[in-house]
């Protein structure tokens, strides 16, 4: 996968957030996060988020909080 890193100014996000156990962070066989996306689509939660975007913007992001050893869960947001 080709990628580049860019420094961006501070941004705000409107998101659906769910906590996941740290153990899944490096589990290739775990489907909890893709299942969360599916759950959001099935509950029709994605369309209202799309309507809140700036005109012309079509991006949707998955945002992951840092996994900290002192905590047992991390937050993931759509």
Please provide a written account of the structure.
With 78 residues, this protein is of the alpha+beta class. The chain has one domain. Helix content is 22%, strand content 15%. It contains two helices and three strands. Strands 1-3-2 form a three-stranded antiparallel beta sheet, covered by helices on one side. Strand 2 and strand 3 form a beta hairpin. It is globular and about 40 Å long. The two termini are 22 Å apart.
Tell me the Rg in angstroms: 14 Å
In which order are the strands of the major sheet placed? Answer: 1-3-2
| Major pleated sheet | 3 strands, antiparallel
What would the principal axes of the Cα set say about the shape?
Answer: globular
Could you give the order of the helices and strands? Answer: EHHEE
Question: How much is the average pLDDT?
Answer: 89
Q: Give the strand tally.
A: 3
Structural class: alpha+beta
What's the helix count?
2
Low-confidence spans: pLDDT under 50, at least 5 residues? Answer: none
Instruction: Give the count of structural domains.
Output: 1
* Percent of residues in β-strands: 15-25%
Roughly what percent helix?
Answer: 10-25%
Distance between the ends = 22 Å
